Amino acid sequence: MKLTAPLLGRPALEHDCLAFDSFGVKAACTGITTPDVTIIIDPGASLEGDSFPLPQAEQEHLLGERLEACTRAAAGAKAIVISHYHLDHFIENRDPDLYGGKVLFVKDWENLPPKQANRAEQFLRAIDGLPEEVIPCDGRAFRFGRTTVEFSAPVPHGTRDAEPGEVVMTTVRRGRETLLLTSDVCGPVEEATVELILEAKPRTVILDGYPTHVLGQYEADLDLVRSIINACRILHARTLKTMVFDHHPCRDYRYPALCRLIYATAKKLGKRFGTAAELAGETSAVLRGYRDYGPTRWKKWRPLDLDQARRILERAIAERKADPALLTALDRWVT
Predict the structure, then answer these.
(1) Where do the structural domains in the chain lie, given as residue ranges?
(2) pTM of this prediction?
(3) Could you tell me which SUPFAM superfamilies the record lists for this protein (predicted)?
């Protein structure tokens, strides 16, 4: 999928969703091109899990296609971004086409969770000598001509102090266009992450939604409702025109029902919204798999509506697990 905004008759900023879960692979790889530079963010992809309703052979075929797309796009790029060291966000190979002669912006390898620290060390050792430069990018900004690339301070991969650690979000600006890619914030769940997104005043946000595939009964999950409120709050931003909503939710064929409040809010606000596949006019792979092969893990479920979301919050507040202000936020931001 490519979206182009003109600036004096030339593309100011294009983005291409190269590999995402809605295409049938674990990934959030995005190519961004301006007249000054081409940047590939999180060039990687992995197989989906056991609950994904496509046969293994088809999943492997899709993975090969998307990894090839990431590598092909990266060959013509000046810069590569690795927001964190999960294996669906970077390719470990010593690949000159992918890393040779590139400026490599990476999540700082200091103070990582043990698994990511080991991966980072192995990866950086493996590609040693290939990139033009390897730059820890947390909280920093860089210029390529009239294009600015900004990286957030580290934000939680989900909730604060969650086991997966932290990631950096990427913002690219050129002319009037601003695109922000969240990478792996899981919703977002945390209010501080939402504030950083809003402060960037993006026209386009590529948002990784809540990992609903980890849920049992959604009624018991406060973080899902928090993520819905926060996604809807971002949709209300005056500068925002487009939100690509992908990655974690698209591993779960229930996502249209569990995230229906976000879809409804986007529709009411007139924002361009959907998964990478949906915005490209395609059916998300997980829904195609469910249609063609039937259910896997989940046999029955109900849509999450506004009343049910409110009951989840009221119960959490009564148990002193949530701030009462969440009820006000629900009424303010969610349709």
Answers:
(1) 11-333
(2) 0.94
(3) Metallo-hydrolase/oxidoreductase
